[in-house]
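Cross-check.
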Amino acid sequence: MKNVADYNYLIVGGTTKAATTSLFAYLTDHPAICAATYKETRFFLSSDYPLPSKYRYTGDAEAYANLFPNCDDTQLRMESTPDYLYCEKARDGIAQFLPQAKLIFSLREPISRLISWYRFAKQIGKLPQTLSFDAYIELLFTYLDTDRSGKAAEEQHMQTLQQGCYTLYLQPYLDQFGPARIHTLFYEELAAQPAVVMANLCDFAGIDAGFYTDYTFKVTNRTEKMRNSGLHRKYRDFRFRLRQWTHDKPIIHNPLRAIRRTIEPLYLRLNTQLDEKIQISEETRHRLVDYYQRDIEALAELIGKPLPWKPSEKSN
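Predicted model, tokenized:
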């Protein structure tokens, strides 16, 4: 009987707000891949990491197998937990317990990623609707300069500034796993040329790239502006709890997932509105460009290929 360590894994380990949900959906459809029963297992995140999870590692790595109940021995087992990039204990846990795992990191131009996080945090009610983007950035810089020793881990939307400095987090992964087990791709290229990006990813994973030749690429989990953020918060909580209950019950989970795919677009049409253009002062733009420029230059050198964006390029 095989142990967890005996299987081959493909883990989408980061970053947040970089199309990892769409990427998970594309990979799930490939016949050579068997996905975890829901996207973000969060299994290897440390116990104090500020995200809820029903299946955190608590001392038994074999429990990870419960998240792949319908996989055969020939398939790559795949999950996507974007915050693995930012968690040292996750990196150590994957290295220790999944010795054959390969990791994918989808990266996004850091300023546009910040804008997406700002929209998302307002969407789920973590930021006041009246808070401007400039004020949010000021809040993040103030938080970054605050001595947080001995304090509990802050919520995701308060860590987004530094988390755009990808080299800081990617370097330890490359050091620990080696470049042959790490694949980086870019949100911008995935959006513009998904077939090319997926073909390169398939080469890295050792699976047939031909599957995506006539594949229809759809964007999922797009950040929207909600008419009623309170209702959307309740919807997300209900969806999360339902998925936790049904994920290992395919006879229930699969029909519910099909129903959700039919109903959710209707719900989103009813509870979303046109998103306003984010207003950013030139002072804030320059401040962010200056903050990220050195890391962007280091990142290109680290991964050995040019980035699809430059420090001065920003989008709303």
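The chain has ten helices and seven strands. The chain has one domain: 4-224+275-303. Passed to J.P. for a second look.
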